[in-house]
Amino acid sequence: MLKVIIVDDEQFIAQGLQALIDWNAAGYEVAAVLSDGQEALEYIKKLPVDLVITDVMMPKMTGLELLETVRRENLSNAGFVILSGYSEFSYAQKALRYGCIDYLLKPVEKQDLLSILSKYNNISQNSKMEEQYELAYQARCLISLLFGKYDPNGVDYLHKHLDFSDGVRYIEISACHSSDSEDDDDENHFRMVQRDLYQSCVQILGEDRSRCFYDASLDRVGYGIAFVYSGALARNAGCSETQYIQDFYKKLGVSTQHELRFLVGKKVDDITTVSESYDTVCGLKNLCAFRQQKSIYYYEEELSVPQERAVLCKDTLDQLITAIELNEQERIGSEIDHLFAEMQQRGVHNKDINLNLNYLLFRLMHLASNLDNEANQKEMLQFISAQSFREGISRGSRQHLFRFAREYADYLSLLRKNISTDILDSIDKEIQEHYSENLTLQGLGKKYYISSAYLGQIFRKKYGQSFKNYLCSYRINEACHQLLYTNKRIGRIAEDVGYKDVDYFLCKFIELKGCTPSHFRKSKTEKPHSEFPGK
Questions:
Q1: Which DSSP symbol is given to 56?
Q2: The Cα angle at residue 282 between residues 295 and 413, in degrees rounded to 5
Q3: CA geometry: angle at 73 spanning 69 and 75, to 5°?
Q4: Distance between the two ends of the chain, CA-based, in angstroms?
Q5: What confidence score (pLDDT) does residue 528 get?
Q6: How many C-beta neighbours within 10 Å does residue 165 have?
Q7: Is 104 helix (H, G, I), strand (E, B) or coil?
Q8: Contact, 101 vs 119, CB < 8 A?
Q9: pLDDT along the chain (535 residues), means of 10
Q10: What is d(CA 264, CA 169) in angstroms, rounded to the nearest whole number?
């Protein structure tokens, strides 16, 4: 529903316009009826507006002055329709030069008004689809760079549209209650939270909104927002980098009313090396699962090593690592007790604790890599550490570490057994028969009595992509089939293939197919059998 405001100092005309047609049936909501241009200007500064229908001659500020101010100060992309009498036609002509989409002669005829509303509705829809496509393309270019895939054309396109001077950082933004688990009971709820985060980021960033996009995670279902920051943002805002990130965090928290977590990656010189910053955020995730929760984690702070009097409980940690490697569950518990006792006795605090955890995680990842050097062990380590965290357990506590160590021991045991073929055949059948349902690695792991972390790993090895991406591709291809062979509306198709959030469906469709669903349907209907992409 497009929001329209009516601006006229003659109350009977404004109210007459409001009552002239069924605005809702035309696809509009009359958000406000205002009496002069100044009042309308203040409204536009505070609230979103799609269409402004305004009289030309009004006290305080004319309709033409309102239009000029809005365009000059770039306050809104709203369309303008000018109301004028025959004697004021020259004003209407001048308004057209400032981007006014049309004009209405007084007294306004019902059919003339409906015709203009229909025209603008089409313009607005086309404009939104073009903007959505452009944002999706920029996101695809950025995601490629995050994963180290350099495309000169994509880089040139990004440099033309965004300023990446003064250094670049990858930042992951998530709501705390949904950021630590791959598989949640209600995916649609968390997708709504993610959508809320995205829309608020877009509103705060304004012209720089293409710097943020839906999660770029690979081996897990992510509900966060990716944000590619550059120093140019802080420079343009007249503040320091730290102040800009803190202000962004506060604004986003106020807008969404969610408790947030920012993971701020390493600063790199240029967008072409942003993959280095992305990798450091993956490293931060491994550590954050073991630490007390806070608002903003900076790579430089969290991964720095103490320079003096570093205390590493190496012998005790080595004993714990051996117990995990041998999957000796009782011994794991006793070794963790010894570790915490030693850290307390030796006065290990803060960054020294981080050093001990870093050593443990590094050694465990090395053990897994020796068993399977093709898997992304960083992602697996992060996933298992996050899964072992449960409500009511302090991060980095004895109980949290105990849960993690036991699950990681099971994971190593599964790697040695190399279970795969029969399970994956069953999983593939599950996807074919239940792709529209809330399928998750955790749920499938429980059903087939296998670690969800290991299941995700062997799935990637067989199919060359994560479970999440495979399921998404399957759903989008099913959507393509329905677009070609049914007359269903796009919103219905999205729901049929498992997406209750239509905006998220559109984002994924454009990301995978390079065009909108409506454009796909239009361009493929002439040769559906020969051009339809296979499943």
A1: S
A2: 120
A3: 90
A4: 35
A5: 45
A6: 14
A7: strand
A8: yes
A9: 90 88 91 92 90 88 89 85 70 67 83 89 72 77 86 89 92 71 55 86 87 66 84 94 95 91 93 90 72 82 61 89 90 91 78 75 80 63 58 62 85 72 81 89 78 75 82 93 91 91 85 86 62 41
A10: 7
User: With contact defined as beta carbons under 8 Å apart, do 67 and 98 qualify?
Assistant: yes
pTM: 0.54
Other beta carbons within 10 Å of 204: 16
Beta carbons of 309 and 207 less than 8 angstroms apart: no
Q: How far apart are CA 403 and CA 414, in angstroms?
A: 17
Is beta strand 79-84 parallel, antiparallel or unpaired with respect to 296-298?
A: unpaired
State residue 420's pLDDT score: 61
Eight-class DSSP state of 59: S
DSSP H helical ranges for 21-109: 37-46, 63-72, 89-97
SS3 105: strand
**Cα–Cα separations (whole angstroms), residue 341 to 149, 292, 334:** 46, 19, 11
Given the DSSP bridges, would you call strands 102-105 and 225-230 parallel, antiparallel or unpaired? unpaired
Are the C-beta atoms of 27 and 2 separated by less than 8 Å?
A: yes
Of residues 460, 461, 430, the one with CA closest to residue 443:
430
Gap between the Cα atoms of 362 and 364, Å rounded: 6
Q: Which of 360, 310, 318, 312 is nearest to 335 (CA)?
A: 318
Handedness of CA 515, 521, 527, 531 (dihedral sign): positive
Beta bridge partners of 9: none
Query: Coil, strand, or helix at residue 341?
Result: helix
pLDDT for 192: 83
Exposure string for 487-512, b = 16+ CB within 10 A, e = fewer? eeebeebbbebbbebbebbbbbbbbb
How far is the C-alpha of 329 from the C-alpha of 232, rounded, in Å?
52
Which residues, listed in sequence order, are joined to residue 80 by a DSSP beta bridge? 52
The residues that bridge with 264 in the sheet, in sequence order, are 171, 298
Whole-angstrom distance, CA of residue 275 vs CA of residue 9 = 56
- The angle subtended at Cα 227 by Cα 222 and Cα 230, nearest 5°, is 155
Q: Is the peptide bond before 533 cis (omega within 30 degrees of 0)?
A: no
| Phi/psi of residue 34, nearest 5 degrees | -120, 160
Tokens of 46: 């505070």
Residue 452: exposure state from Cβ atoms within 10 A (0-12, 13-18, ≥19):
buried
241 in Cβ contact with 171 (< 8 Å): no
Reduced to 3 states (helix: H, G, I; strand: E, B; else coil), residue 81 is strand
Burial label, 447 (beta-carbon count in 10 A; 0-12, 13-18, 19+): exposed
Element (H, E) at 296: strand 296-298
- In this structure, the strands spanning 225-230 and 168-175 are antiparallel
In the beta sheet, which residues pair with residue 175? Answer: 260
Please, which residues bridge with residue 268 across strands?
Answer: 168
